[in-house]
Amino acid sequence: AGCEKEPSSYMWIYILLGNMLRGIGETPITPLGISYLDDFAKEENVPVYVACLHTIAMMGPMFGFLLGSLCAKLYVDIGFVDPGSITITPQDSRWVGAWWLGFLIGGAASFLSAIPFCFLPKSLKKPEEANKDKTSHGLLENMNFYTSLKKVLGNRMYFTFLCSSLLQFSGFIGFLTYKPKYMEQQYGQSTSKSNFLIAMTSLPPVGLGIFLGGLIMKKYKMGIIGATKFSFTMSFLAYAISLLHFFVGCDNYMVAGMTVSYE
Predict the structure, then answer these.
(1) Which among 105, 76, 238, 79 is positioned nearest to 164, based on CA atoms?
(2) Crossing angle of helices 224-242 and 156-187, rounded to 10°
């Protein structure tokens, strides 16, 4: 019991609250943006516009990893210590990068990008010719929240899509979260280089795929069934190719008590 250390700082609580507030502020952008495109754009152009929206959204994590790569090269106490007095390098296991700098830069960028939203009108006039053939408009207008939620979740196609998206994003988030650390441990890369490689090799292909998917749907004018078949085929091929990850890697490091015995 004497070896246990009490936490000396509760700054992580502020980081937790900051991320929570950021999530609350960013949540309306995607659903309301897609709803706006669906209501005001021509039906055949909606897939391309939604694809552009998601493609631009993928640029955020890409620049985030690049920013993390840059900050990881800077010592954690940059601005408070003499750089010449630092005797370790980013390749040293004792190195701690300026992780806090990304929060300041990202927060300032988010604040500046939010200013134009203050000048948008409170309501927009919907063109008469837009989406005049959509029959689902107004279907849930006269229902309360719980009734409409029950009706939406009772839609088998929507519920299946919801479960599929949950599984896809769970795997994708785990991939982005642990792959940099895996590259550090298995391939001996620094934190800075791992983040840089993730930003340049993983996220741009995803954004390009989203954009190409929107173009294909627009070109062939896919309906709900066609889009479902297209999504299933592409997802199946992606998961099949992902199985190749099991054949790529290095031998585990020899760690006493874990991979080898103490003897």
Answers:
(1) 238
(2) 20
Q: Is the pLDDT of residue 2 over 80?
A: no
Q: Which residues lie below 8 Å from residue 216, measured CB to CB, with a gap of 6+?
A: 222, 230
Query: In terms of residues, how long is the chain?
Result: 263
Residue closest to 218 by CA, chosen among 40, 52, 54, 45? 45
DSSP designation for 119 = G
38: number of CA atoms within 13 Å, CB side? 10
Contact call for residues 66 and 198 (beta carbons, < 8 A): no
Residue 32: both structure tokens together: 């309301």
pTM of the entire structure? 0.64
Rounded distance between C-alpha atoms, residue 202 and residue 181, angstroms: 15
Question: Residue 72 and residue 95: Cα distance in Å, rounded?
Answer: 9
The total of other beta-carbon atoms located within 10 Å of residue 134's CB is: 12
pLDDT tens for each residue of 89-124: 887 878 888 888 888 898 898 889 889 878 877 776
Question: Left (φ > 0), alpha (ψ -120 to 50) or beta: where does 88 sit?
Answer: beta
pLDDT tens, position by position, 65-83:
888 888 888 888 888 888 7
Instruction: Tokens for 110, please give them.
Output: 């988010």
pLDDT digits (tens, 9 = 90+) for 151-185: 888 888 788 888 888 887 887 777 777 888 888 77
Residue 112's pLDDT is what? 92
Beta-bridged to residue 256, according to DSSP, are 260
Q: Write down the number of H helices and E strands in the chain.
A: 9, 0
Look at residues 92, 100, 255 and name the one whose alpha carbon lies nearest to residue 188: 92
How far does Cα 110 stand from its chain's mean position? 16
